[in-house]
Amino acid sequence: MSGLLKKALKGYRRIQLQTGVGAFLVYLFTILVKGEGRELLQYILFEGRSFKEAITIVFLLSLIGLLVAVLVGFLFVLVLAIEYKLNALLKFKYWFVDLCVYKFFPSKLGKLLEAQGFIASRTIKMWPLISESRNKKYSDGTGLPAFVFASDLDREDFWPDKNYSVVTIFDGTKIKQVKDESGKNCLLEIDISAEAYGIYSRGGKEFLKDKYEAASLSDEVRKREKEFHEYMLSPNQGAAPIVWDYSGLPITPFRWASGGYLSIVRWKGKNWVQFFFRDIGPVGLNLSNGASEDSEEHTNIFSLITREFPEETVLLSAKPSVDRTVKARRFAVPDNTGVTSARRLEPLEFATVHNQLRNLHDNLKIQESNEDSRRISSVATQFMVSVKSKAAKHPVETSNVIYSVNPQERGIEVIWICKFDLQENEVILDGEYDLAKNFLLRQPAVLVDMDFLKNVYRQNRGLGVLSDSKDAQGGKVMPIIPPEAIHVFDTDIHLRKPRLKFLQEMLMKDNLAENYEYKRISDWLNGYETAFSEWQQGVTDERLRTLCPVSWKTLEVLLAHEEFQL
């Protein structure tokens, strides 16, 4: 048992929040000896007693308190030892003590613990944010915080509505761009080894947005954002590294990691850029990207990207309908060196759920096809990302990507550029669904002519003007898109109304407003149905011409470097 105790004590700082149980007893005692509690204590000890009797009582109470403290301390260490052993054997991490601490731990108690040396100052500074995020509007009434310690992010069964595992970077000096001697090759260095906090749900994103939105809109932050983007646009031999340093800047924490891909699709004799229309902030034409779902993806960005690809882009053999079965093509993807391998993406679990939801919600039959897998080729770039963390001895590098830093949405995006062919009758469908609530997101897939984008960039040295819409969160508005330069795969546009009607019939009227899927479909139809119904005459609606921040930044870097073989 001594070996277990040593290991438990060694891991004390890792689960330091559990000291909250012992500290809570101290907290209760401090309440007791204040105000009326102190008067009551004095009356019990001293009123009507001799000095000797009072001293005897104080001594006995002190002795009892000491014995209780020793017992609590022993039990605490024993709990740590048992937890360590069970974690090793069962990998089971849903613990009542942790849950109670997250749910009830008072922020004021942090100062007491800091004074006693239980918790480091850095933790004390961040704990009020954790307590503040313990709010019904952010965590769906569970009373649990939406902003938590990063070490707890991978507790799969701990958090309600868990969608992802994201570290928040509060130290801006850990975000740095470096160029080599040629000035062409550019490296983004990220260090998350000292970052201790993160988010696991949409509530966490909402919390960070509300807390730091004003800071992200400041002139100082926008200037630094522009400097980071322009650093990538042209060769600058001997350029000094550029750091996202918060000296003189308001703090705007960044989410890590987020990655995805920009697909250049060869269709009908032309190159097109594939987007999905995003209807929640930032609203606009978005690249296929998403957040990390476990701690491995915090460093292995290519693993994140190759997971996102088959989850978001579903390639169907034909336009789906209720009276026929269509096949879903699989993709053969390259590894992170840019060399195509024979490996296939096999998103069996995710694809199975997606196909089941399509059948259940839309009465569509999609069959996974092992035939005619579509080969993807990688576009070589001169940009790479290096991630330093506690989990890896050495920084993990991902090459052939383009990255962007987007403070208004508090994100750093790492995008892989790839190409594949699309046959004339094939259809692209959004494969994503809400992991927590199990409903389809239905983002329409949109193709925009690459030649149109190139002309816009050459004429304006950019892809448009920054949007003043709050929903765009730093997006750029392109000129009016002519009908020949855009194509919308509208399957999910037409499927929304039948699904909405079904929800209206199945749900009680009182529950409609509380149903997230119903609200999202209803809001989409009210906001975007008319705009999308007119796309074949060209796109004039500003929202449909808005490129999300990651979209315009990635494309501008891509178009600025003519040496990239598109």
General description of the model:
By secondary structure, the protein is an alpha+beta fold. It contains 18 helices and 27 strands. Strands 1, 2, 5, 7, 8, 9, 10, 17, 20, 21, 23 and 26 form a twelve-stranded mixed sheet that branches. Strands 6-3-4-18-19 form a five-stranded mixed sheet, with helices on one face. Strands 15-12-11-22 form a four-stranded mixed sheet. It is globular, with a radius of gyration of 28 Å. The N and C termini lie far apart (63 Å). The relative contact order is 0.10.
Which features would summarize this protein structure in a list?
single chain; globular; 39% helix; five-stranded mixed β-sheet; 566 residues; alpha+beta; 27 strands; 18 helices; twelve-stranded mixed β-sheet; 22% strand
Low-confidence runs of at least 5 consecutive residues: 4-27, 87-95, 337-347
Structural class: alpha+beta
Largest sheet properties: 12 strands, mixed
Number of strands: 27
Rough shape?
Answer: globular
Oligomer: single chain
**Global Rg:** 28 Å
State the gist of this model:
The protein has 566 residues and is an alpha+beta fold. 39% of the residues lie in helices and 22% in strands. The chain is built from 18 helices and 27 strands.
